[in-house]
Amino acid sequence: TLVAHNMRSNKNERLTQFRTKQGNGWFSRKQYLEANPSITGHTASRDLRYGLDQNLLEKIGDRRTARYRFF
């Protein structure tokens, strides 16, 4: 559907824009959320999960200690 397509595009756009700003260093969900103030914590988590599923990101740690970085 169009709505589902727009949601995927937004995830991709947010991740791409964040990568441009962040570079390839490690970052937390909180840092991702601070860089995207218009989204909720739940949306940030979904974006990061999408990045992991698409092999855009790698993750170390769990829950509060989780850190991510782009491949």
Question: Which keywords apply here?
Answer:
71 residues, mainly alpha, two-stranded antiparallel sheet, 11% strand, globular
Explain how this protein is built.
By secondary structure, the protein is mostly helical. The chain has three helices and two strands; from the N terminus they run αααββ. A two-stranded antiparallel ribbon has the order 1-2. Strand 1 and strand 2 form a beta hairpin. Helix 1 packs across helix 3 and helix 2 crosses helix 3. It is globular and about 25 Å long.
Strand order of the largest sheet: 1-2
Low-confidence runs (pLDDT<50, min 5 residues)? Answer: none
Number of strands: 2
Mean pLDDT: 91
Helical residues, percent: 55-70%
Radius of gyration: 12 Å
How far from one another are the termini? 30 Å
Structural class: mainly alpha
Q: Helical stretch count? A: 3
Task: Write down the overall geometry.
Answer: globular
Q: H/E element string? A: HHHEE
Q: Could you tell me the strand content as a percent range?
A: 5-15%
Biggest beta sheet summary: 2 strands, antiparallel
Summarize the structure.
With 71 residues, this protein is mainly alpha-helical.
Itemize the secondary structure elements and their pairings.
Blueprint: H1 2-22, H2 29-35, H3 41-53, E1 57-60, E2 67-70
Antiparallel strand pairs: 1-2
